[in-house]
Amino acid sequence: MKEGYVLKADAAKYLTPEPITYEAMKRKSEKAAQTALKDAKASILNAAGIGKVEAYCINTVLAELKRKGLTPEKEGYKRISRETARMVIRDRKGIWTRYYTDKEGLKDWLLWKLGLKKETVFDRMKRMGMTGDVLQDMELLTGGKKR
Predict the structure, then answer these.
(1) pTM of the full structure
(2) Helix extents (H) in the chain
């Protein structure tokens, strides 16, 4: 069979429209509404200069605020919101780099910088490359120099 050739019986199946029923109309209108909402959100974000990286940062912080139980009326919520906006603008290049290399690291860094996540000693050790072995860690801290 040649490529691009469609049998007439198969073509008729694809050309017949879906029967007009209430369910079909409802599906089409819901899909159109979802598409319109998605397009509106995208145009608003694009007009404001907010891309997917900035949206990821904002959504990460909002999810953590919600998890902690902070509401928009509280002063802590307002302070963190303002600081998030400043940080996303100020550290744009670093945030972009972290987003494309290590999303989970970006999330942890954002929450740590905003004071929403306290770094434990073990997290700090892991970040510094320490293993828990005294000799190896001392060599790491001294830069490989022996006394």
Answers:
(1) 0.52
(2) 8-15, 22-47, 52-68, 75-90, 92-101, 103-113, 121-128, 134-142
